[in-house]
């Protein structure tokens, strides 16, 4: 089990940028699969980006809707997951959640299935206005 705390959300105008952070507290360090999900009002939760942490060359995967605009990264020394969001659109509005899977990603890298992840943060709100 991992404790996750998100931060960095806020309100921005279309075209702006935000950087979300997710601080992870673990009993010991190991390779984990970590992800960002989001949920807009009245819509289902959807996967945004996934990354395999703790490796020399981490694999990452993005939803088509954010590819080229968002960048997921992880600082192994700080045990912190990041999501750099650029050229934000109103459709990006929603609650963003950090998730962790205590294992290598495997198929979880691209499936964007919330059931693959056992730990979740409380979320941070992102609002993009036009």
Structural account:
The protein has 130 residues and is mainly β. It has 1 helix and 11 strands; from the N terminus they run E-E-E-E-E-E-E-E-E-H-E-E. Strands 2, 4, 5, 6, 9, 10 and 11 form a 7-stranded mixed sheet that branches. A 4-stranded antiparallel sheet has the order 1-3-8-7, with no helix packed on it.
Regions with little confidence, pLDDT below 50 for 5+ residues: none
Instruction: Indicate the radius of gyration in whole angstroms.
Output: 14 Å
N-C termini distance: 39 Å
Q: What is the makeup of the main sheet? A: 7 strands, mixed
Query: Structural class of the secondary structure composition?
Result: mainly beta
Strand content: over 45%
Mean pLDDT: 93
In DSSP terms (H or I, runs of 4 or more residues), the helix count works out at 1
| Helix fraction bin | under 10%
Shape: globular
Number of strands: 11
Order of helices and strands: EEEEEEEEEHEE
């Amino acid at each position: 089990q991992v404790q996750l705390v998100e931060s960095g959300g806020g309100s921005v105008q279309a075209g702006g940028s935000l950087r979300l952070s997710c601080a992870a507290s673990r009993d010991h360090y190991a390779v984990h699969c970590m992800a960002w999900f989001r949920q807009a009002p009245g819509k289902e939760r959807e996967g945004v980006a996934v990354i395999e942490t703790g490796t020399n060359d981490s694999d990452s995967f993005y939803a088509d809707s954010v590819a080229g605009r968002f960048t997921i990264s992880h600082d192994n020394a700080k045990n912190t997951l990041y999501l750099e969001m650029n050229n934000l659109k109103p459709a990006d509005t929603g609650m963003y959640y950090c998730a962790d899977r205590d294992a290598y990603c495997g198929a979880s890298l691209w499936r964007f299935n919330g059931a693959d992840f056992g730990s979740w943060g409380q979320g941070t709100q992102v609002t993009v206005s036009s």
